[in-house]
Design a protein that fits this description.
The complex is a heterotrimer of chains A (about 525), B (about 675) and C (about 100). Chain A is built from 20 helices and 2 strands. With about 525 residues, chain A is mainly alpha-helical. By secondary structure, chain C is an all-alpha fold. The chains are: A mainly alpha (about 525), B mainly alpha (about 675), C mainly alpha (about 100).
Chain lengths: ~525, ~675, ~100
C-alpha cells in the first residue's frame, strides 16, 4: 500500500477506532488517539524522507492515480496524490505537530471520545489537502478539515467559543465558495473546445504545465474572448482570497485571534502550525502556477499585503494584553514574511518564505504550548497578572525564551534563516516594481516584533515572582514531552537548515521558474 | 584585488571559538554537579582560547605583508546554486581583536569568580559569560557579513541576558530591554545595508563585497546609503549618538559584565565593523561617520562631568571614547581607530574592574558620596586605577597617548572633506576626559572618607580580583604598544581586502604617513600633551583642597542641568518615540476590532436587523389584518393541534406519506 | 456510457436515503446530513438534466443550490451548537417546543 495513502487514512481509521471505545474509558481513548497520532507521524516522516530522492519521472513522489468519479466526457476525477519537497515538508510538519498536540490534549476532560475522534479526523483533511494533486480532491479535503475544526473550537473552546467557531466557519466557507467558483471557472475554461488544453481539467500538475506553456497564451482562461483578461484576474483574486482567509492576510484575518483565543491549546497549536500553512500552500500549489502572468502584474499587491501583514500584525500585537491574542497577532505578522517572499519570486525569497512556513509552524506551535502551560496554572492569560516565572519555573522559562527569541528572529534559532533569506530575496527581486522599498519598510517589523515579545518576556518571566504565581510548579513531564519535540527543530534547523533546504530546493526552482516565464 | 594571498588556516584556530563553546556547554549541563558550579571549566576554556589567540597572532606576524589566513565551507545552499558560507578569516584586524577579546574575557572571568561568589544564579552567570565569548569570537573571526551579523545578534542576546541578570528588580529588566531594542533599531539599518550589498555582490563574503565595490557594481549614492545603513548597526552597538542612551542604563548589569561587554568588547564591535568595512564607505558616508563620532565624543565627556555614580562616569567615558574611535574611522584612519580600540579595551576594562573592586569592597555602594580616601584601604586597586586613568587621559608614555594622538593627527590631515573641525572637538573631549577622570579618582580614593561606616568595612579584594587589575594596568604602559600600528597595518593591502581602488586609497591614511611627509608641528604635540595635563591640573586644582565634592556644579548652570539630564534624550525617546509607537499600536488595535472586524460583524448584525424589521412589519401590518381571521382560526387550531406533537420526525413522516399517497393517486388515475 | 436514468437513479436513491435519514434519525446532525443528501439529490438531477440537453442553466442552478446548502449548513450548525450549549444534547425529539 502506498505510504502516503496510508498516512492520509490512518487518522481516519483512528477516528473510527476511538468511537468504538467506551465513553468512560478516557485513558484508553487517549492512548489509542496518541498511538494513532504517532503512527501518522511515522508514516508522514517516511513519506517525507522519500522526497530527498531525485524527482521521479512522473514528477512527484508516492504518486497514485486512480479513477474516482467518471461522468463521461472530460469530467473525470482522479484519486491523484503525490508529494514534492514542499508538500513533503508540510506533511512532516503535520505529523510532528499532531503528536505534540495529542500529548497536549491529555487534559481535555469534556467529551473525551468525541474530541479525539474529531482531532484525528482533522488530520485526514490536512494531510489530504497537502497530498492532493487533483483540484477536486483538494477541494474535498479542504472542506473535510473545516467541520472537525468547527466542532473542536465550538464545543471544547473557551467562553466565547460559539461566536469564534461560527466566525471561523463563515469566514472559511466564504473563502471556499470563491475557491469553488475558481475551480469551476478553470474547468469551463479548460474544457472549452478552443482552449488548446488536452489534459485532465482537474489535474494540478497538468494545468500548471499548461499554464507555463505557450499554448496558454499567457492566460489559461483565454477562451473567454474579450473578457478573458478580466475573468482571469477575477479568478486569480477569487482563489487568492480563498487562500488568504486561511493564511490569514489582512483584512481577512479577524477570525484568527478569536479562534485562537477560544480554541483549546492543542487546537491552537494545529491552527497556527498547520492550518495557516494550508492557505500559503494553496497559493504556491494552485494560485501562482495557474496564473503566472497575472501573478506578475499582481505581485506588487501581494508584496504590499505582505508588508501590511508584517507591520499591522506587529502593531496590533503590541497593543494586546492577552498573551494568547498577542501570539495570534504575531502569527499574522510572521505570515506576512511568507507573502513578501512569494511575491519576490527569487530563489532566496521563495526559499525563505517556505522555510518560514515550516519554522513558523514549529515556533508558533511551541509558543501556543507555552501559553497553554501558563494558562493551565493561572486560568487567565493577562500579561499584567504574571511576573517572575523564571525564578520558580526555570525549565519552562528557558523553553519559553527559546520560543520567543526564535520567533523574533534571533540567529542560531530557526526563525532567523527564513527571515533573512526572505529579506535579501525580496530586496533582490526584479519581479515587480517597488520590491526594494517594500522590503526596506518591512524591516521596521523586526523592531516592533522585538518590542512586543520583550515586553511579554519581561511581564511574564522577569521581575519579582508575582505572589499569585508563587505556587506554580515547573513544567510537568507531559508538558515537556509536548514542547521538546518542537524545541529540537527550532534549534537544529537554526544552526543547520541544510536538510530542509535540500528538501525544498527542487520545488523552489520549479516555482520561481514557472513564475518567471512570460 | 591586489597582491592578497590566501593561506590555509592552521588547524588550531577554530578551537579559539570551539573551546569556550564546549566549556560553556559542559558548564551549562553539568555545572550543578561540578565543583564551584563549573566556573573552572569556563575559565580554563577561555585560557585555551587566549593561548591559541596568541599563537595565531605570532603566526600572522610571520606571514608576508598582504597575506591572510582563510578557510570556509558551505553552510547551506538554496535553489539556483546560491551558496551561503561560514568561514574563518584571520588578518591583522582579526588577530589583534582575538587577543584583546580573549585576554579581557579571561581576566574578567577570573575576576567574576570572586565578584559573583555566593550569587544564587552563579552557574547561569558563567554560562552566559561563556556564551558571550563564543558569540564575540564568531563575530571577530567571521569571513562574511552574514556570519558577522549572527555573532552580532548573539552578543546582543548575551548583553540582554547579562544586563538583566538581576532581573528580580524590574528596572534592570527594563534596562536590558532598552539595550536590546535600541541596538536592534541600529540593526535594522545594518540589515538594509546588508541587503543592498548582497544585492550588488550576490554574496556576503567580504572579498566579494569589496570586489563589487571595486568594480563599481555598486557605487555613488547607493553605496553611500549602504555604508550609512551598515554604520547605523555599528552606531547602535557602539552606543553612538543618537543610539547611545542604552549604554548608561546597561550599567545595571554586574560590574564584570560592564567591563567585558559594555566597555571592552561588544561595544567595540561597532568600531570593528566600521574598520572592517572601511573600503565600502564613500567620502559622504565617512563624513557622516566622522561627525557622528565627534559629536558622541564631546557629548559623552560633557555628561560624564556631571555624573556621581562611578559606573555611570565610566559608561559615559566609554561612549566618548567609542566616539573617538568612530571618528578615527571617519577621518580615514581605521588602523588608528583599531589601535585605540585595543588600548582602550584594556585600560577601560581595568577601570571597570577597579570600580568593581571598589563596589565589592563597599558592599555594592557605587555612589561617589559614599567614597573618599579609599587609597589606604585598597592600594592595589588604587594604583592600577590611577595608571589606567593616566592612559585614558592620554598622558605621555601611556598607551592612550599613542592611540589617541594617532586619531587626532589623522583628523588634522584627513582626506575626508569637511571634518577638520573634529580635531578641535577631539581636543576638547580629551581635555574633559582628563578632567572628569581626575575628579572621579580624587573623589573616590583621595581626601577624607565621606561615609565613615562604609569606609571602615572596606577591604582589599582577593587575588582573583587584583591579578587581573595588575595585568590590565601593565598594558597601559606605552612601551608595550610601540610600533603596534606599523606591525598590524603596514599597508592598505595588509589591512586585508583593501581593494586597490583609487577612492579607497584616497580616503585612507596609512600609519605615520603624514608624519613622514609633513612632520607634526610643535603646536600639535603641545596641544596633545597640554589637554591631558591641563585637564588633570584643573581637576587637582578644583578638588585637591577638599572644598568641592561630587555635587559641585562644574559646568555653567544651564549646561550642567542639561548634561545632568543627559540632554533629555531619554525623555524625548520615551515620550516622542516609544509613546508614539504605542499610540500607533493602540490605534491599530482599535481599528482592528472596530473597523476591520466591525465590518464583518456589521454584515452579520445588518442581516439580523433586516430580519427584525421584516418581522416588525409583518407583525404590525400583515398580522394586524390577519388577527381577526386568526382569532377564528385559533379555535379551529386548538382542535387540530392535537396532531402537532412538536416532533420533527412526525411532521416529516406525515409529509412524506401524504406526498407518496398523492403521487400514487396521480399515477393510478 | 452513462445516461440520464443513471443520474435520476442516483438522485432518487440519494433522495430516498436522505428522507429515511431525516425521518429516522433522532440526532440533529443526522437530520442535517439527511437534508444535505436531499439537496444534493436535487443537484444530481439538475446536473444530469444539464448534461442531457438542458444547457448550462441547470448547472447554474446547482451552484445556487450548493451555496444555499452551505448557508443552510452554517445556520443549522449554529442552531445545533446553540442547542447543545443550552440543552447539552442534540436529540430532535426532545426539542419539542413546537408542540401545539
Amino acid at each position: 500500500m502506498n505510504v502516503l495513502t496510508a498516512a492520509i487514512f490512518l487518522p481516519l481509521v483512528g477516528s473510527i477506532a476511538v468511537l468504538f471505545l467506551k465513553k468512560e474509558d478516557v485513558n484508553r481513548i487517549r492512548w489509542t488517539g496518541l498511538a494513532f497520532a504517532i503512527g501518522t507521524f511515522v508514516l508522514c516522516t517516511i513519506a517525507a524522507l522519500k522526497c530527498f530522492d531525485p524527482v521521479p519521472a512522473e514528477g512527484y513522489h508516492h504518486m497514485v492515480e486512480a479513477k474516482w468519479i467518471d461522468l463521461g466526457g472530460r469530467f473525470q476525477v482522479f484519486y491523484r496524490i503525490g508529494l514534492d519537497g514542499l508538500s513533503g515538508m508540510l506533511v512532516f510538519l503535520t505529523g510532528l505537530l499532531a503528536v505534540c498536540a495529542a500529548i497536549a490534549s491529555w487534559n481535555i476532560e469534556k467529551g473525551v471520545r468525541g474530541y479525539w475522534a474529531m482531532f484525528l479526523f482533522l488530520h485526514v483533511g490536512v494531510i489530504g489537502t497537502f497530498a492532493s494533486l487533483d483540484l477536486f480532491m483538494f477541494y474535498v479535503f479542504w472542506e473535510i478539515m473545516l467541520l472537525p475544526m468547527y466542532f473542536l473550537i465550538g464545543v471544547w473552546g473557551g467562553p466565547r467559543r460559539v461566536y469564534a467557531s461560527i466566525k471561523f466557519f463563515l469566514y472559511t466557507l466564504f473563502g471556499s465558495i470563491l475557491l469553488l467558483a475558481g475551480i469551476l471557472a478553470v474547468y469551463f475554461g479548460l474544457t472549452h473546445a478552443e482552449s488548446g488544453f488536452t489534459g485532465n481539467p482537474f489535474s494540478i500538475p497538468e494545468i500548471a504545465a499548461f499554464a507555463a506553456s505557450p499554448l496558454a497564451h499567457g492566460n489559461i482562461l483565454h477562451v473567454f474572448g474579450a473578457n478573458a483578461a478580466t475573468i482571469g484576474v477575477l479568478t486569480f483574486w477569487g482563489m487568492f482570497i480563498a487562500f488568504a482567509v486561511k493564511v490569514p492576510v489582512f483584512p481577512f484575518h479577524t477570525w484568527l485571534p478569536d479562534a485562537h483565543v477560544e480554541a483549546p491549546t492543542p487546537i491552537s497549536v494545529i491552527l497556527a502550525g498547520i492550518l495557516l500553512k494550508m492557505g500559503a500552500y494553496g497559493m504556491l500549489r494552485i494560485n501562482f502556477p495557474f496564473f503566472p502572468d497575472i501573478m506578475k502584474d499582481m505581485a506588487i499587491y501581494i508584496g504590499l499585503l505582505g508588508l501590511i501583514n508584517i507591520i499591522y500584525g506587529a502593531l496590533v500585537a503590541m497593543a494586546q494584553t492577552d498573551f494568547k491574542r498577542m501570539v495570534a497577532y504575531s502569527s499574522v505578522s510572521h505570515m506576512g514574511f511568507c507573502l513578501l517572499g512569494f511575491a519576490a519570486m527569487t530563489p532566496e525569497g521563495m526559499t525563505g518564505a517556505i522555510l518560514q512556513l515550516f519554522n513558523h509552524g514549529t515556533i508558533s506551535g511551541l509558543l501556543f504550548l507555552v501559553v497553554g502551560v501558563a494558562y493551565d496554572r493561572a486560568h487567565h492569560r493577562d500579561l499584567n497578572r504574571f511576573g517572575g516565572l523564571m525564578w520558580n519555573m526555570p525549565i519552562y522559562s528557558a523553553i519559553s525564551s527559546i520560543a520567543i527569541f526564535a520567533s523574533l528572529g534571533l540567529p542560531g534559532l530557526s526563525g532567523f534563516i527564513g527571515e533573512i533569506l526572505t529579506f535579501i530575496g525580496s530586496f533582490k527581486s526584479e519581479f515587480y516594481y517597488g520590491a526594494k522599498i517594500i522590503t526596506v519598510v518591512a524591516t521596521v517589523g523586526l523592531v516592533l516584533t522585538a518590542a512586543y515579545y520583550l515586553r511579554a518576556l519581561q511581564k511574564v518571566y522577569l521581575g519579582k515572582t508575582n505572589p499569585a504565581c508563587e505556587a506554580f510548579p515547573d513544567a510537568t513531564l507531559r508538558e515537556k514531552l509536548a514542547m521538546i519535540p518542537l524545541v529540537v527543530p527550532t534549534i537544529l534547523f537554526g544552526v543547520y537548515p541544510g536538510p530542509l533546504l535540500d528538501l525544498i530546493r527542487d520545488s523552489v526552482a520549479t516555482m520561481t521558474k514557472v513564475a518567471s516565464v512570460g | 584585488m591586489n597582491e592578497l594571498l590566501n593561506k590555509d588556516l592552521p588547524a588550531y584556530i577554530p578551537w579559539i571559538v570551539l573551546a569556550p563553546t564546549l566549556a560553556g556547554l559542559i558548564q551549562n549541563f553539568f555545572g550543578k554537579v561540578l565543583p564551584r558550579k563549573g566556573d573552572i571549566v569556563v575559565i580554563a576554556g577561555m585560557g585555551v582560547a587566549l593561548v591559541l589567540s596568541l599563537l595565531t597572532l605570532f603566526h600572522w606576524i610571520n606571514l608576508a605583508p598582504g597575506e591572510y589566513m582563510h578557510w570556509h565551507t558551505t553552510w547551506f545552499s538554496v535553489a539556483g546554486g546560491i551558496d551561503f558560507h561560514v568561514g574563518i578569516m584571520v588578518d591583522g584586524l582579526t588577530a589583534a581583536m582575538l587577543v584583546v577579546v580573549t585576554l579581557v574575557s579571561f581576566l574578567v572571568f577570573l575576576f567574576s569568580s570572586q565578584y559573583m561568589k555566593g550569587d544564587p544564579y552563579y552557574h547561569r552567570f558563567f554560562f552566559w559569560l561563556s556564551f558571550f565569548a563564543t558569540a564575540m569570537l564568531i563575530l571577530v573571526v567571521a569571513d562574511n557579513l552574514l556570519l558577522l551579523f549572527i555573532g552580532w545578534e548573539l552578543v546582543g542576546l548575551c548583553s540582554y541576558k547579562l544586563i538583566g541578570f538581576w532581573s528580580q528588580d524590574l528596572a534592570n529588566a527594563e534596562a536590558a530591554k532598552k539595550a536590546f531594542i535600541t541596538t536592534r533599531i541600529g540593526d535594522v539599518g545594518m540589515l538594509i545595508g546588508l541587503m543592498m550589498l548582497y544585492n550588488a555582490a550576490g554574496s556576503f563574503a567580504f572579498s566579494d563585497v569589496f570586489a563589487a565595490v571595486q568594480s563599481g557594481v555598486i557605487s555613488g549614492d547607493v553605496l553611500t546609503w549602504a555604508g550609512i545603513g551598515l554604520f547605523l548597526g555599528a552606531a547602535g552597538k557602539s552606543a553612538q549618538f543618537p543610539f547611545h542612551v542604552w549604554l548608561p542604563d546597561a550599567m545595571a548589569g554586574p560590574t564584570p559584565v560592564s567591563a567585558l561587554i559594555h566597555a571592552a568588547t561588544m561595544v567595540a564591535a561597532g568600531v570593528y565593523l566600521a574598520a572592517r568595512m572601511f573600503p565600502i564607505f564613500t567620502p559622504e558616508a565617512l563624513q557622516y561617520i566622522a561627525w557622528t563620532g565627534g559629536i558622541t565624543a564631546i557629548l559623552g565627556s560633557i555628561i560624564a562631568v556631571t555624573q556621581t555614580d562611578i559606573k555611570k562616569v565610566l559608561a559615559y567615558s566609554t561612549i566618548s571614547q567609542l566616539g573617538y574611535m568612530i571618528m578615527g574611522v571617519g577621518v580615514g584612519a581605521p588602523w588608528a581607530a583599531m589601535f585605540h580600540l585595543c588600548t582602550h579595551a584594556l585600560f577601560k576594562a581595568c577601570l571597570f574592574l577597579g570600580s568593581g573592586s571598589v563596589i565589592h569592597a563597599m558592599h555594592h555602594a557605587q555612589e561617589l558620596k559614599d567614597m573618599g580616601g579609599l587609597r589606604k584601604k585598597l592600594p592595589i586597586t588604587f594604583w592600577t586605577f590611577v595608571i589606567s586613568t593616566a592612559a585614558l587621559a592620554g598622558l605621555p608614555l601611556t598607551s592612550g597617548f599613542l592611540s589617541k594622538d594617532a586619531i587626532l593627527a589623522q583628523a588634522l590631515h584627513s582626506p575626508t572633506p569637511g571634518v577638520q573641525p573634529l580635531f578641535w572637538i577631539g581636543l576638547a573631549a580629551a581635555f574633559l576626559t582628563a578632567f572628569y577622570m581626575t575628579r572621579m579618582v580624587w573623589l573616590c580614593f583621595m581626601g577624607q572618607p565621606r561615609n565613615q561606616e562604609k569606609y571602615d568595612h572596606a577591604h582589599e579584594s582577593p587575588w582573583q580580583m587584583t591579578v587581573p587589575l595588575v595585568v590590565l594596568a601593565l598594558f597601559s604602559i606605552g612601551l608595550i604598544w610601540g610600533g603596534f600600528e606599523e606591525k598590524f597595518f603596514r599597508t592598505p593591502a595588509d589591512y586585508t581586502f583593501f581593494p586597490d581602488n583609487e577612492f579607497v586609497q584616497g580616503a585612507y591614511v596609512a600609519p605615520g604617513e603624514h608624519l613622514h611627509e609633513h612632520g607634526h608641528p610643535f603646536w600639535f604635540y603641545a596641544c596633545a600633551v597640554g589637554v591631558g595635563v591641563g585637564g588633570i591640573a584643573l581637576g587637582l586644582m578644583l578638588f585637591a583642597r577638599g572644598k568641592r565634592d561630587q555635587d559641585t556644579k562644574l559646568l555653567p548652570g544651564s549646561l550642567h542641568d542639561l548634561a545632568k539630564g543627559k540632554f533629555y534624550l531619554d525623555e524625548f525617546y520615551l515620550n516622542g518615540f516609544i509613546g508614539g509607537w504605542n499610540k500607533v499600536a493602540a490605534a491599530a488595535n482599535v481599528a482592528d476590532s472596530r473597523v476591520v472586524d466591525g465590518l464583518v460583524n456589521n454584515v452579520g448584525s445588518g442581516g439580523l436587523l433586516a430580519g427584525d424589521l421584516c418581522g416588525d412589519a409583518d407583525q404590525l401590518v400583515v398580522d394586524g389584518a390577519v388577527n381577526g381571521v386568526a382569532d377564528v382560526t385559533q379555535a379551529a387550531g386548538a382542535v387540530a393541534s392535537a396532531a402537532q406533537t412538536g416532533r420533527l420526525r412526525n411532521y416529516l413522516t406525515a409529509a412524506v406519506f401524504t406526498t407518496a399517497i398523492g403521487l400514487l393517486i396521480l399515477i393510478l388515475l | 456510457m452513462i445516461g440520464i436514468y443513471h443520474y435520476l437513479g442516483v438522485g432518487a436513491a440519494l433522495f430516498a436515503i436522505g428522507i429515511c435519514g431525516v425521518i429516522t434519525r433522532r440526532n440533529a446532525i443526522g437530520v442535517l446530513i439527511g437534508v444535505e443528501l436531499i439537496l444534493n439529490a436535487a443537484n444530481v438531477n439538475l446536473v444530469g438534466f444539464s448534461r442531457h440537453g438542458g444547457g448550462l442553466d441547470a448547472q447554474v442552478f446547482s451552484i445556487f443550490v450548493i451555496v444555499l446548502a452551505a448557508a443552510e449548513a452554517a445556520v443549522a450548525l449554529a442552531i445545533i451548537l446553540q442547542m447543545f450549549d443550552k440543552r447539552s444534547e442534540v436529540d430532535v425529539d426532545r426539542a419539542s417546543l413546537l408542540k401545539g
